[in-house]
Specification:
Strand order of the largest sheet: 16-15-12-13-14-11-17
Low-confidence stretches: none
Length: 406
């Protein structure tokens, strides 16, 4: 049920193993979310091994050991290249089709599906599923079906325009499963500060970002999350890899407006070193404006923003800057604070956090521990990883293992 990344590969592989297989899809076309992913380029996986995928997921990554043993990143790349989809590794470690076309990825999956002998039924939404003796009764918009085994690959609630509207959760719950409340992940972060919107279009290729709760005591608390990478300013706030990665903690917080993001604009330069470099620069170039000197480290618009946030006049010359003003500049370069208003939600989320609890599914087979004959794969599970192809890898690997198990 569900012809996305996990469903297409699971259905094809189950049919290849001789299982009489039907793939149900409510949309007119399969794989809509695949076509939308990665800016229509489809980040297939990451240039790492199984251990690297597990590590990227943190503690929940242990659930993926068996799935990755069945289909790890190198084997996934081989699978697509065997279908004619050459791949490339970008500097971030992300693996894309060499053509930069998500359509090529979908075409490869559909070609394999067609060869496998699986029957694909589109525009046929499932209405209900019931346990019966020897399997399941499935009622669709068109007919009643009986199946010995069912693989749920309906995805989560991210990009609902692609059809992922959380249908699978209700079906699994009707059969006895519980649900970790779904929330958006890998979605842009909203900031209502006008100065953030004024920076729209500016990209910072390498910054460090930490998420903190507002602390009235003034004492530094351990961050709720931290990440490093590229940041892009937008009219609504922040996007780019670091903002997307930290968004799951924002969407999961009961009071997101009490949060703030702290940004180190120069993560490779220790604070003491930057402080000394700035002191020396202002001492040696007294006639230059301070904002011009900051432009040696930062994009001009960001340098101007730092000046304003530090409450140092833009026209201030280096010879005129006080020690206190310089300290405020250092603070804002090394810890620029963005007030958080929330996220852009499921509409712009690449992934769903939450779903069917991992403890209710046998990681060795992907079979439900509660409902024999029911298998779960992909984003319907409470398993979401960082940006970089990890979530597609998990979808493909769990789909493959489920197909191996039915």
């Amino acid at each position: 049920m569900g012809a996305g990344a996990a469903g297409l590969l699971a259905a094809a592989h189950a049919a290849e193993r001789g299982r009489r297989t039907l793939l149900l899809e409510k949309n007119r076309r399969p794989g809509v979310k695949i076509l939308m992913s990665g800016g229509t380029r489809c980040n297939l996986t990451h240039a790492t091994d199984a251990a690297g995928i597990v590590q990227a997921y943190g503690l929940p990554g242990r659930f993926l050991h068996s799935a990755l043993a069945a289909l790890d990143p190198p084997r996934l790349v081989e699978l697509f290249e065997a279908e004619g989809v050459l791949t490339k590794i970008e500097s971030t470690g992300k693996i894309f089709p060499a053509s930069d076309r998500a359509a090529d990825v979908l075409a490869a999956l559909l070609a394999r599906l067609q060869r496998s002998g699986c029957t694909l039924a589109t525009e046929e939404p499932l209405k209900s599923i019931e346990r019966i003796e020897g399997g399941f009764r499935l009622t669709t918009a068109r007919r009643e079906l009986r199946a010995e085994k069912v693989i749920v690959t309906t995805g989560g609630k991210s990009y609902p325009g692609s059809g992922t509207t959380g249908d699978g959760y209700a079906w699994c719950m009707s059969l006895g499963h519980s649900l970790v409340p779904p929330r958006p992940s890998l979605t842009p972060v909203r900031c209502e500060a006008h100065w953030v919107a004024a920076l729209r279009g500016v990209t910072l290729p390498d910054i460090a970002l930490e998420l903190h709760e507002a602390n009235e005591s003034g004492r530094r608390a351990k961050p709720l999350a931290r990440t490093r990478g590229s940041l892009l300013f937008a009219h609504f706030g922040l996007t780019g890899p670091v903002a997307l990665d930290i968004s799951r903690e924002v969407s999961g917080h009961p009071r997101p407006r009490t949060l703030r993001l702290e940004c180190d604009l120069l993560p490779d330069v220790p604070r003491a070193q930057f402080e000394e470099d700035l002191r020396r620069a202002t001492a040696e170039s007294g006639k230059k404006q301070v904002v011009t000197l900051l432009g040696e480290w930062l994009p001009n618009r960001v340098a101007e923003t730092v000046m304003m946030q530090a409450e140092v006049p833009l026209e201030r010359r280096a010879a005129e800057i006080s020690k206190t003003e310089r300290a405020r500049l250092v603070e804002n370069v090394k810890r620029l604070v963005f007030p958080v208003a929330g996220t852009l939600g499921f509409e712009k989320a690449e992934v769903t956090a939450g779903g069917i609890p991992l403890g209710e599914v046998d990681s060795r087979t992907l079979q439900s521990k509660l409902v024999p004959g029911l298998y779960l794969a992909g984003e319907v599970l409470d398993l979401d990883g960082p940006i970089g192809g990890y979530n597609f890898q998990a979808a493909f690997s769990t789909g493959w293992l489920a197909a191996e198990s039915v």
